[in-house]
Amino acid sequence: MDIEKVNSMDFGEFVDVFGNVIERCPLIAAAVWSKRPFSGLGDLEKHFFAFIDGLPLSGQEGVLRCHPELAGRQLPWGRLTAESQREQSAAGLQNLGAAERLRFTELTAQYRTRFGFPFVLAVRLSDPAAAPRELARRLRCPPAQELRTALGEVKKICHLRLADLLGEQP
Ligand SMILES: NC(=O)NC1=NC(=O)NC1=O
């Protein structure tokens, strides 16, 4: 899809297409539509990122809370969004060994207890085997720093999903 097609979309079409580039946050696409016309992928994602950056802390935490747990209970039951299902399956998280999955589950529970939102990682850009180590590392970060890190991962996921939709190299 080229940027001219994006700029020609009415509100409903735009939200249908871009409503899940930020996981389960169609409101962000609904707001970004007003910023058209876009000059390209970079301009489009700049507006998605700006919306997130402009949210109050409660809103930024809310965006993170809209993300499914990594390799969580939802994965085998297919209750993830199509994008998350694709990303998490491709990352091979469901292939974690029993011991790894148990450690990962324990760490994600500790993470959510400490920060109040799920551990978010752009799995397409990470080595899934390193995910438990990355989770253990981030678990020790100060909350304000971890919020910024987690939102950075949301932006990476957004970039990848936008690149897919526009048929561009991520
Ligand atoms: N909690 C998460 O990190 N979720 C996800 N990361 C991805 O790359 N896709 C997801 O669904």
Protein architecture, described:
With 170 residues, the protein is an all-alpha fold. The protein has one domain (3-166): Orthogonal Bundle (UraD-like), CATH 1.10.3330.10. Helix content is 64%, strand content 0%. The protein has helices at residues 3-8, 11-18, 26-32, 41-54, 57-65, 74-77, 82-90, 98-115, 131-139, 143-166. The chain is globular, with a radius of gyration of 16 Å. The structure holds 1-(2,5-dioxo-2,5-dihydro-1H-imidazol-4-yl)urea. 1-(2,5-dioxo-2,5-dihydro-1H-imidazol-4-yl)urea is lined by residues 67-70, 84, 87-88, 118-124, 157. Pathway: Purine metabolism; urate degradation; (S)-allantoin from urate: step 3/3. Its main location: other. It catalyses: 5-hydroxy-2-oxo-4-ureido-2,5-dihydro-1H-imidazole-5-carboxylate + H(+) = (S)-allantoin + CO2.
**Tally of discrete structural domains:** 1
Counting DSSP E segments of at least 2 residues, the number of strands comes to 0
Instruction: State the shape.
Output: globular
The largest β sheet comes out as:
none
Output mean pLDDT.
Answer: 92
Approximate strand percentage: under 5%
Bound molecules: 1-(2,5-dioxo-2,5-dihydro-1H-imidazol-4-yl)urea
Number of helices: 10
Helical percent range? 55-70%
**CATH homologous superfamily descriptor:** Oxo-4-hydroxy-4-carboxy-5-ureidoimidazoline decarboxylase
- CA-based gyration radius: 16 Å
CA-CA gap between termini: 14 Å
Instruction: Please identify, by name, the CATH architecture.
Output: Orthogonal Bundle
CATH C-level label: Mainly Alpha
Pick out the low-confidence regions.
none
> Class by helix and strand content?
mainly alpha
Could you give the order of the helices and strands?
Answer: HHHHHHHHHH
CATH topology: UraD-like
Family: Belongs to the OHCU decarboxylase family.
GO cellular component, one term: peroxisome
GO molecular function: 2-oxo-4-hydroxy-4-carboxy-5-ureidoimidazoline decarboxylase activity
Organism: Bos mutus grunniens
